[in-house]
Hints:
Elements: E1 2-5, E2 9-12, E3 18-20, E4 33-38, E5 45-49, E6 56-60, H1 62-65, H2 75-79, E7 89-96, E8 105-106, E9 112-115, E10 120-123, E11 135-136, H3 137-142
Antiparallel strand pairs: 1-2, 3-4, 4-5, 5-6, 6-7, 7-8, 7-9, 8-11, 9-10
Amino acid sequence: MKVETKARGIIEVDDSHILTMPEGLFGFEEYSKYALIESEYEPFIWLQSIEDVSLAFLIVDPFLICSTYETDIDDESLKKIGIEKPEDIIVMTIVTIPSDGSNITANFQGPLVINKSNQKCMQVIVNDNRWSTKVDVVKMLSGEGK
């Protein structure tokens, strides 16, 4: 599928990298179709809206930033995207890179849960006071944030 991107123009994206978010992202509920696109900066991935070229987010596997990260998501929530077994789950987190040069952060409190068997995705809220919406990525990677 051809996808117009914010960062790279029009590119070809394999259908297996197209996600459907029935409830959208918090604050962007009206957008439900996204493409996962490799970023030029590994291990980050672009989550590009197919419906609005100007809407794109950098995401990353939170376990690469913090090996002790945990999400306790209830089974009822997971059923919304058809999760039947734990091995179908991929967890990602949205990264913010402020233009003012301040700290790069990741939203560990509102991770994305992807069902890799059907490419459905949802954003959830983790009710755990260890995690915030602004986890300092550099501090966590350097061991200072633990």
